[in-house]
Amino acid sequence: MGWFEERADLAGTVAVVTGGAGGLGGAIVSDLADNGVRVAVLDIDPAAAGELRSALADRGHEVLIEHGDVRDPAELAALFEAARTRWGRLDTLVNVVGGTFRAPFTETRPKGWDALLRTNLTHVLHACHQAVPLMRAGGRGGSIINITTIEAHRAAPGFAVYAAAKAAVEQFARTLAIEVAPDGIRVNNIAPDFVPTPNLDRIGTGDSAMMDPEGVKVAIPMGRAGRLTDISHCAVFLASQLSAYLTGTTLHPDGGTSASAGWFNWPTEGWANHAPLRVLRESGTFGADGGGRV
Ligand SMILES: NC(=O)c1ccc[n+]([C@@H]2O[C@H](COP(=O)([O-])OP(=O)(O)OC[C@H]3O[C@@H](n4cnc5c(N)ncnc54)[C@H](O)[C@@H]3O)[C@@H](O)[C@H]2O)c1
Fold it and tell me: Which residues form a coiled coil (predicted)?
């Protein structure tokens, strides 16, 4: 056994991952399984769940992949019960399910707010409510990991309720972390920025600048979009004993966008926390006289 395997101590542990057949979730499930974790997944997409099941079985992994809706507390409870019956323990919970649509807040309706809260917040509460007693019963502690977003840490025009729901998850995690700390159960968040996945395709990312090798350098200090493994490696770390003393906090695998907070690396002008005059003029919407005072 190598240094990582010995200190991470993941082999033989059990994880529940909601939304585990998607972009980020699939990478997290795969990396946990490759480190010897037995993973139970609940995902609403039957085709993706089927593909994940056969891909992991082909690699000889012991998994439980269920098709279902995490917003239904009964279906969620059934997954925890299936994992408990099969493996008799729970060490890790990863809450991945989440999603949004783009619309100015004033053009949205209570039905849409409710849908966003159910997709991004309420199931996290239900899952944690199921997980903590199982982790306590095991007496070995545990790790709860929520996939939130950079939008929980800044304004997100067009995504007000999504940002609010994810910020609520972050704050919930802080408090739960303290309540369950005496049991050795840790609660942390991972807040990605831009990682191309089917979810992002559905939302739409405006123009394609973020998919352009030069364009992405303007917004992301490290000069590239996130990769699935940038997120899944954080999840492996948080599930493992390498993070044994880390709780109530958030990892930001975002290439530096959270730290840069509004500063952009413009191709000609370099770092600025506003759009350069050249860009405004070239947009054709800025006054011919240069737009007044600069
Ligand atoms: N991709 C990004 O750039 C990015 C950035 C920040 C935050 N996030 C967050 O990461 C998480 C995962 O996003 P992703 O990009 O991997 O999306 P994705 O669409 O690729 O994956 C989401 C998975 O969840 C499943 N799912 C959706 N609703 C479900 C439900 N009600 N019950 C069970 N399963 C359900 C989907 O079938 C899919 O497999 C989300 O919480 C999202 O808000 C993603």
Answer: none
- CA–CA separation, 51 vs 32, rounded Å? 17
Do residues 194 and 294 share a domain?
no
Q: How many other CB atoms sit within 10 Å of the CB of residue 17?
A: 31
What's the burial of 51, exposed, middle or buried (CB within 10 Å: 0-12/13-18/19+)?
A: middle
Which residue's alpha carbon is nearest to atom 26 within ligand 1? Answer: 19
Note the pLDDT of residue 292: 47
Q: Is 245 a catalytic residue?
A: no
Report the pLDDT value the prediction gives residue 293, as an integer from 0 to 100. 45
Best residue among 45, 94, 97 to mutate for probing ligand 1's pocket (most ligand atoms within 8 Å of CB) is 97
How far away, in angstroms, is 43 Cα from ligand 1 center? 10
Ligand 1 atom nearest 199 alpha carbon: 19
Is this structure's pTM higher than 0.90?
yes
